Amino acid sequence: MFKAAIIDLDGVVWLGSKPIESNIEFITRAMESGVDVVFLTNNSTRSRRVYSARLRSLGIEVDESRIINSGYSAAKWLLERFGECRVYPVGEEGLVEELVLAGHTVVTASDAPRYADAVVVGLDRGLTYGKLRAAVRAILNGATFIATNLDHVIPVADGVDPGAGAIVSAIERATSRSIDFDAGKPGGWIMDLAFRALGNPPRDGVVVIGDRIDTDVEMARRYGVRSILVLTGLTRAEDLKNIGDRLTNTTVVRDLSELRI
Ligand SMILES: [Mg+2]
Q1: Ligand 1 centre from 118 Cα, in Å?
Q2: What are phi and psi of 206, to 5 degrees?
Q3: In a domain, 134, yes or no
Q4: What confidence tens digit (pLDDT) does each residue in 159-181 have?
Q5: 12 and 83 co-located in one domain
Q6: pLDDT, mean over the chain
Q7: Which among 19, 110, 134, 182 has the fewest CB atoms less than 10 Å away?
């Protein structure tokens, strides 16, 4: 069994606006029996404060210090690397909130090309040509180019939607530049933040629970911790053929009700 769990949100706790009851029930039981839990998501559209409230409404009581999203991860990386910055965000409210809470100044699209020290790109369902232009011009003028994550798609209740990685690619193409930093899964930085939130426990007592092989399972593999892949989100049973040794330290379950606590 495990002492601590790093749990994904999209595809594990909910699909779009739909809660995944079987998984929620397991998570609640695990927390009641003393498993230390941190939630870790590549989704930057909502702030940790909002995720905390949403989890509470589903019966999962968790402080926002136990929630790490990729917007917080990007804001924290910028702060520890460069101090407080002027940032142009391509993203939604949640990303802006995390940047401001970390002490950064958010600049407008018209100021971005001249004043932005960094451009942080996350999922933005209100993306416009003007936002792309501001980001591209700021980067061409020397701003640091940060991705909150490179997910190509995100699972939603009726299929998949384009992810932050699709927006990052558009900006990389226009600038002929690659990102300077990826703040999301499967990178090590966001995992470092999750471990910090857990108080840096020994790795063999920690498990990552997620619905994606390219992010959750891959991050756990790189970090040397076990993972549990749930088939309630993006990954389907048929995707598990021909993936070689990527699932060596991974338990695959249809949903978390298959696990005992
Ligand atoms: Mg997920």
Answers
A1: 27
A2: -115, 140
A3: yes
A4: 899 999 999 999 999 999 999 99
A5: no
A6: 96
A7: 110
Task: Please count the structural domains in the chain.
Answer: 2
Give the distance (Å) from ligand 1 centre to CA of residue 233. Answer: 7
Distance 226 CA to ligand 1 centre (A): 17
Partner residues linked to 227 by β-bridges: 208, 250
How many A from CA of 151 to the centre of ligand 1? 10
Q: Looking at the predicted structure, is the pLDDT value of residue 246 above 80?
A: no
Helix, strand, or coil (residue 11): coil
171 lies in the same domain as 203: no
Q: How many CB atoms lie within 10 A of CB 248?
A: 10
Expressed as residue numbers, the domain containing 141 is 72-182
Ligand 1 centroid vs 7 CA: distance in angstroms?
9
Handedness of CA 96, 62, 43, 4 (dihedral sign): positive
Tell me, in angstroms, the distance from the centre of ligand 1 to residue 195's CA.
19
